[in-house]
Design goal:
By secondary structure, the chain is α/β, with parallel strands linked by helices. Helix content is 58%, strand content 8%. The protein has a four-stranded parallel β-sheet, with helices on both faces. The protein has a three-stranded antiparallel β-sheet with strand order 4-3-7, with helices on both faces. It has a three-stranded antiparallel β-sheet with strand order 8-10-9, with helices on one face. It is elongated, with a radius of gyration of 36 Å.
Length: 749
């Protein structure tokens, strides 16, 4: 197609440009063309009624995605000031035919994958050269805002966008895949323009709205013929319309025309629509001041006025019609932030980017996963309103229900909500941050938010239904997981989601991972999760019997490696003590586990003098609780451990370990307090302070009522009043004493 006396009207834009949106509306009103062609995949034409629905609230996005795994997608976001969106609205108002003229999305995705393979084959040197070449083009954001957004009228805008596009093409790197990509797209655009002319529409009655980079290429060049089109890679796709947010628009847009400050540009768009574009400066600074004040900052009206004057002065110095975003920000930092960006950083983020989220009508296009969500909500009698509501679930079978489906309604709800949670779809928030003690009860907070709607729409990239998406997500994570803790967490997720096939896959992965060398801490965490699942498998109607052999194997490994792990310093002992307690509790809860080797390991730890004294004390306490230690043995052990022949801190550290569990079992045994009294009597003066540090730390673990009982025991032994001793034991440490205790350094002695 060659430029002729009568040619299509080519309008170059930036994909999120208030001025572009403003002037395309003006051009359509003035010229009243027969056809408007917009740079977007041609197969999106079926979405035009939805895209011009008055109930649609931007920002929103059109997403095309492949129907077969691995799922790939292309995303086209729109803001209220996107020229394409405003052009469609204006064309609908004026009765102008609307069509899209870019390569259909099946080919777009095919070319996207081809480009990825091309870049994978590039050497690091080639990638670095490409990065340097791209950076040499500079930042066009400031340039576009200064010269295009501040165009005086339609004629000035069209001329400047033409010059900008031609300059961008000249500066673009040559002999790269982008050139081939753009060449194919532009050839297809020329094809659509030619088809419209062949259908009887006069060339000058066609308006073509494209990125400024492409518009200059559409006058001349060949059209993409059927043979060339058929040769391109393509994939079967589906399409959906989804809510979008300014937060996401500022980070990723699905194509290169980014937008750093979407909320700011909406302010500029609003000012343009009033016919007073310069008023956006005052709007911006007053909005910023409001955000700063809401967060406790101090900004006076005088400072806002000063910032406005400074911004106007900066614009005049640079021959601008009104301030750009950079000038407004500089003025705000100087006058409202008192020279500190950090002082107003949060307010700037809200003013520049904002928290706006769009809305898509429920009657709009639904992906298969959105339809599945709606169907399951109806089946489970779940509703998600705009106001958050609490939901309590009793997972036990309702024996009064008339059908099995009704009997397990609450459990099926739990499975559904847990699946949403796993996929990161925020319709439901689980009130338990972690299931500390798995039970028959769950508490949720349900609400419907645009952000959750976005997350649901995007989840179609993982599967056609929620169950398929969960399966894909878990399988992918299982494949990538290397640490046993990650695998265990995924195993529990499969359990909570009620997906037995995934549970089996996670079990197999955990089984193979547990062969590798793992620490006592990892064993304890994993074993605790497995034990929890075994306890409540019946409640969740899950067969978790396959977990028991793994649990037994892990506990056997813990038994065989316990003593070696207890060659450690006091800091490590603190973490290890919790793991020992957790493993011991598993043996207490899970009856029938082979516990002989664990009991032997605990007995050896209790008796050994060359291991960490605190952990040996804990092992002694475990033996005392389980009835494996007689009164006489306890007396001998205390006398041996708390002997003046040993370093004072070792005895006190051992007593701290002994005090880590079941204080009552110690309180009722007089021999403990008699031995402690004797120890205190015999400590040499030079060791007194050492021992007191650890003993004070030990008694910090006791409750006030327990300290009262200890005071009663010691009072009887020492012939003192219980109240006096209780007052001393329950006295709070001063701040200085607490700091001294925390940072005590034995090297001082």
């Amino acid at each position: 197609m060659k430029a002729a006396e009568k040619s299509p009207v080519l309008v170059g834009i930036r994909h999120h440009s208030p001025a572009g949106a403003h002037y395309i509306r003006e051009l359509l009103r003035e010229t009243k063309p027969d056809c408007l062609l917009i740079e977007a995949p041609a197969d999106f034409a079926e979405l035009i009624p939805a895209l011009t629905d008055p109930a649609l609230k931007p920002p929103f996005a059109v997403m095309a995605y492949t129907v077969e795994a691995p799922v790939r997608s292309v995303l086209y976001p729109f803001a209220v000031y996107s020229p394409e969106f405003q052009a469609m609205l204006a064309a609908r108002e004026l009765g102008i035919e609307i069509a899209f003229c870019d390569l259909p999305s099946p080919y777009m995705i095919g070319l996207q994958l081809a480009a990825e393979k091309y870049y994978e084959r590039q050497s690091e040197e080639e990638r670095e050269a490409a990065r340097k070449e791209a950076s040499a083009l500079g930042d066009t954001e400031s340039f576009w805002e200064r010269y295009l957004e501040q165009s005086e009228n339609l004629s000035a805008y069209l001329e400047r966008s033409r010059i900008f596009g031609e300059g961008a093409r000249e500066a673009a790197p040559g002999e790269r895949i982008e050139q081939a990509w753009n060449g194919l797209r532009e050839a297809y655009m020329r094809r659509i323009i030619a088809e419209k002319q062949a259908a009887g529409i006069a060339a000058d009655k066609i308006v073509v709205l494209t990125g400024a980079f492409h518009s200059a290429a559409l006058y001349e060049g060949e059209c993409l013929d059927d043979a060339a089109l058929k040769a391109l890679p393509q994939y079967e796709v589906k399409k959906t319309l989804m809510p979008y947010s300014y937060q996401r628009l500022s980070r990723r847009t699905g194509y290169s025309a980014g937008n750093k400050v979407p909320a700011y540009y909406e302010l500029l768009w609003a000012a343009l629509r009033t016919g007073q574009p310069e008023s956006h400066a005052a709007r911006y600074l007053s909005t910023l001041a409001g955000h700063i004040r809401e967060r406790g900052g101090m900004v006076s009206s005088a400072e806002v006025l000063e910032a406005n004057l400074l911004a106007q002065s900066l614009a005049s110095l640079r021959e601008g019609r009104y301030p750009t975003h950079d000038e407004l920000q500089d003025a705000a930092v100087t006058c409202m932030g008192h020279g500190s960006f950090g002082e107003i950083a949060e307010g700037l983020a809200l003013t520049d980017i904002g928290t706006k989220i769009g809305e898509v009508p429920r009657s709009g296009l639904l992906t298969s996963i959105q339809q599945d969500f709606a169907d399951q909500c109806a089946d489970l009698k779940l509703s998600f309103g705009l106001v958050a509501e609490k939901l309590r679930l009793d997972l036990r079978e309702n024996r009064r229900a008339k059908s099995e489906k009704s009997a397990f309604l609450q459990l099926r709800r739990s499975f559904f909500l847990q699946r949403l949670r796993l996929l990161g779809i925020g319709f439901a928030v689980w009130q338990d941050s972690r299931q500390q003690d798995a039970s028959w009860e769950e508490n949720w907070v349900l609400s419907r938010t645009p952000e959750a709607e976005m997350q649901l729409a995007e989840a179609v990239l993982k599967g056609d239904t929620i169950a398929h998406a969960v399966s894909f997500d878990l399988q992918e994570k299982l494949t990538a997981a290397e640490q046993i803790a990650e695998i265990t967490e995924l195993l529990e997720s499969a359990f909570l989601c009620g997906m037995p096939e995934l549970l089996q896959a996670a079990v197999s992965r955990l089984d193979s991972a547990s062969i590798d060398q793992i620490s006592i801490e990892e064993i304890a965490r994993t074993a605790k999760t497995l034990s929890r699942m075994l306890q409540f498998g019946d409640v969740r109607q899950s067969d978790v019997s396959v977990l028991r052999p793994i649990l037994e194997r892990l506990l056997l490994r813990a038994s065989l490696t316990l003593t070696d792990a207890c060659f450690c310093d006091d800091e490590a002992a603190g973490h290890l003590a919790k793991s020992i307690e957790d493993i011991q509790s598993i043996f207490s809860v899970e009856k029938g586990l082979p516990s002989e080797k664990w009991e032997h390991a605990v007995r050896e730890l209790s008796r050994r003098d060359d291991l960490n004294a605190k952990l040996s004390g804990l092992a002694t306490a475990i033996r005392l609780d389980s009835g494996d230690l007689s009164e006489e043995e306890l007396s001998r052990e205390i006398s041996r451990r708390m002997s003046i022949g040993l370093r004072a801190e070792l005895g006190a550290l051992w007593f701290e370990g002994l005090s880590l569990r079941n204080h009552y079992a110690l309180i009722v045994r007089r021999v403990v307090w008699e031995s402690l009294s004797r120890y205190l009597d015999e400590i040499p003066e030079e060791s007194w302070k050492r021992a007191m540090v650890f003993l004070r730390r030990s008694f910090a673990l006791y409750s006030a009522s327990e300290k009262d009982m200890v005071a009663e025991n010691l009072g009887e032994i020492w012939g003192l009043e219980k109240e006096q001793l209780s007052e001393v034991l329950n006295a709070e440490l001063s701040k200085e004493e607490s700091q001294a205790l925390a940072s005590f350094d034995f090297d001082d002695f």
